Amino acid sequence: MLPYIVIILAVIYFVMKGTGFLDELAKSQRKQGDPEKQMGWRLLDRMRNDSDMNHRLEVFKDFLGDNDEEEGV
């Protein structure tokens, strides 16, 4: 019985994916999303564009790059 249910659900999924219904549903959910979650994404984007954060990441990358060179010697 369970394999039939799985097969039916898979067929429904592929039909919905093929018709584009799932894409439209995802777009509408993004527009109506929770404002708290959207604020979190905005904060994350702001952190990505932060020059101080970028400087810290560059220093960290340099530190890791120097470590790899010393181990290879």
Could you outline the blueprint of secondary structure elements for this entry?
Blueprint: H1 2-19, H2 21-31, H3 35-48, H4 51-72
Describe this structure in words.
This protein has two domains: 1-32; 35-73. It starts with a helix and ends with a helix. It has 73 residues and is mainly α. The chain is elongated and about 55 Å long. The longest helix is centred in the last third of the chain and has 22 residues, at 51-72. It has helices at 2-19, 21-31, 35-48, 51-72.
Helix content: over 70%
Are there runs of 5+ residues with pLDDT below 50, and where?
none
Number of helices: 4
β-strand percent reads under 5%
State the distance separating the first and last CA atoms. Answer: 62 Å
Q: Structural class of the secondary structure composition?
A: mainly alpha
The overall number of domains is 2
Silhouette: elongated
Q: Compute the number of strand runs.
A: 0
What pattern of helices and strands is seen along the backbone?
HHHH
Average predicted local confidence, pLDDT: 77
Major pleated sheet:
none
Radius of gyration: 23 Å
